[in-house]
Amino acid sequence: MNIVLGVGGGIAAYKSAELVRLLIERGHGVQVVMTAGAQEFVRPLTFAALTGRKVVTSLFSTNSESTLSSAIEHIGVAQENDLLVVSPATADLLAKFANGLADDFLTTMYLAFTGPVVLAPAMNSNMWLHAATQSNLETLRRRGHRIVDPEEGQLACGMVGPGRLAAPEQIAMAVDAEIGRRRDLDGETVLITAGPTQEPLDPVRYISNRSSGKMGYALAEAAAARGAKVVLISGPVHLAPPRGCTFIAVHTAREMRDRVFENLQPASVIVKAAAVADFHLSKVPSQKMKKTAARLSLELDPTPDILAELGRKKGDRLLVGFAAETENLQQETRRKLEAKNCDMVVGNLVGGEGGAFESDQNEVLLALRSGEFIAVPRASKREVADRIFDEILKLRLHIYATNGR
Ligand code: PMT
Known about the structure:
alpha/beta; Rossmann fold; 2 domains; 19 strands; 37% helix; binds ligand PMT
């Protein structure tokens, strides 16, 4: 595998020499890119000697013969390499990556790079714990990047606390894990629903719910990052569609149902994370309702139960439903598994403090047809999404083994 190692400007830059050795030992080709800050701590010659390659040190050629090819070298490096690891990733680099700033070779190349990214941060404890750094890290985690958390200990600045670069062996293991996990959904087409539906009451009002789409979008990001073709059918949310997904926007449960069945044929896995409204007004008035009486009663009809219909028509596809509950999580999750003929139901608590709606984190209970329950502890929605796909893959292997498919 061809790996780009980005070296940031921190005292821990020298430890990346050991990381280069570990990556080369594993048979990878390593191209080192150093920021200007990194060159204050370690000379490019060290990395050139270890990798046998010229180290990239700036966006533009420093000699007078700048050519077009030197000006677009960052695109070439982005295209030729399979994985980007940044060690040490400084607070400044994390902020630039999170916000898409591109003012040197490494940050520009990052924007042009479409493969997996491993970030090993190192900095002073207060900088690490600062809300700005933590929020940038959350953005980068949601984007699917693997973060190798720094260790606690004595720092170069004299403080004791979190911020010391993880051991090179640990960073190399994170690279191994990223490579191993990357393509395990290759060949699968995953159909995911996300977000709320909006059921109109008149031209200006609707019934909806608190779903932000974060759980469904995290699932779409995780599946795409692991090599699946992803079709994401989403109700109205304030999130950008994840890179590499086919994106279909809907408003109502009826539209969601129709788009799901139009896109069902190639799907091998279906994950229904959307919070679909259960009721709607069948005959929506064409004009705004007037406030003519003290009370208003609305008679609502059920929306199509997309999950139940999928359960009847899924064939040999793997069907994963969700259960959003305010009580009796285990019981309700199992009931929905049976009632909707799912292969797995992901139960989560909603409504109270720390509930699943709108939060960046979730804690779920997976109910399987074997009768087993698997508790996934509280983690970022992206990490929970990866745990869900880990279990989906185990189910897939189990089905192959029992049916010989
Ligand atoms: O979007 P977030 O803010 O990140 O929040 C995430 C979440 C709480 C929305 C998500 O984790 C979740 O639980 N999604 C399912 C919400 C829901 O509608 O649950 P339910 O128990 O009411 O429905 C059970 C299942 O039936 C769900 O898979 C749902 O998509 C499906 N359903 C429901 C009604 C309907 N008419 N058609 C359906 O297909």
